[in-house]
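Researcher: We plan to redesign the surface later, but first we want a full-length starting point. Tokens attached.
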């Protein structure tokens, strides 16, 4: 009799707990889409996925309503997709597997490589000091030019240009360089990017619109017109601190990655059959 009473009490308590939990669930449910329910905690979790600085604003009633509506629409589309059997298609399964693989690999890389590497301000300052010449003032120039094979032809074109004929038209009509079709415009360049003779002549021009004498290079004879000049002032440490830090961090992560991969190759005994690879490559080429 006592045992039966205990069982009855247990059943009653169980029904009571289940009823309470069911009531709690209903109380916390914000929306239902078929059998799927979106709860207060689901909405809170979604808000947490946004950047921290926006979360307080997103907790306002009107913004919560917008996010809840988005979640409802997502679930509607998911249920429609499931009904259409899209989730069971082979190509979708392959994409899901690929995404899963990427998430796993990114997690591993973040834990074993990225989180292990830091860059101090002292390191950035040391790099800046060692490479200070890179941050000096830089003068860039933009020129148009005409290239011909004959010196006398170049002298004739230079004379016509100096007398006021349109330089771009002369370049289009006479230049052997592909830039001729663009009026001879070479775009912006700095010292060290073009052949020595051409560069020296370009940098010797003083005024915008000035036309050079005939310049001989390994490509032929040039007439050059200075279009524009711009100067990047010397960069201070604070100007380049963040890009340098990013660069150093990337370099250190790359080095750490190579070190980690080398250790993994030794651990898992990697062997590559180079001869087989070469044979298979030849077979593919022969089939083509």
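Model: Full-length starting sequence:
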């Amino acid at each position: 009799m006592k045992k039966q009473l205990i069982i009855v009490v247990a059943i009653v308590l169980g029904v009571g707990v289940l009823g309470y939990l069911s009531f709690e669930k209903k109380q916390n449910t914000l929306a239902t889409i078929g059998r799927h329910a979106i709860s207060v905690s689901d909405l809170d979790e979604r808000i947490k996925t946004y950047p921290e600085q926006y979360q307080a604003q997103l907790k306002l009633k009107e913004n919560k309503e917008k996010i809840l509506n988005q979640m409802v629409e997502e679930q509607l589309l998911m249920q429609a997709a499931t009904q259409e059997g899209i989730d069971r298609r082979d190509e979708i399964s392959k994409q899901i597997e690929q995404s899963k693989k990427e998430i796993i690999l990114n997690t591993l890389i973040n834990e074993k490589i990225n989180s292990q590497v830091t860059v101090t301000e002292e390191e950035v300052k040391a790099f800046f000091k060692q490479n200070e010449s890179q941050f000096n003032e830089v003068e860039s120039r933009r020129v148009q030019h005409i290239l011909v094979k004959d010196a006398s032809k170049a002298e004739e074109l230079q004379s016509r240009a100096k007398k006021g004929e349109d330089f771009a038209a002369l370049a289009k009509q006479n230049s052997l360089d592909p830039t001729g079709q663009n009026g001879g415009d070479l775009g912006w360049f700095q010292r060290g990017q073009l052949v020595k003779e051409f560069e020296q002549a370009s940098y010797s021009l003083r005024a915008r619109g000035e036309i050079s004498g005939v310049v001989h290079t390994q490509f032929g004879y040039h007439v050059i017109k200075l279009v524009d000049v711009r100067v990047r002032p010397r960069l201070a440490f604070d100007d380049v601190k963040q890009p340098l830090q990013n660069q150093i961090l990337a370099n250190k992560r790359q080095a750490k990655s190579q070190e980690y991969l080398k250790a993994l190759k030794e651990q898992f005994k990697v062997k590559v059959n180079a001869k087989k690879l070469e044979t298979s490559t030849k077979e593919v080429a022969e089939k083509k």
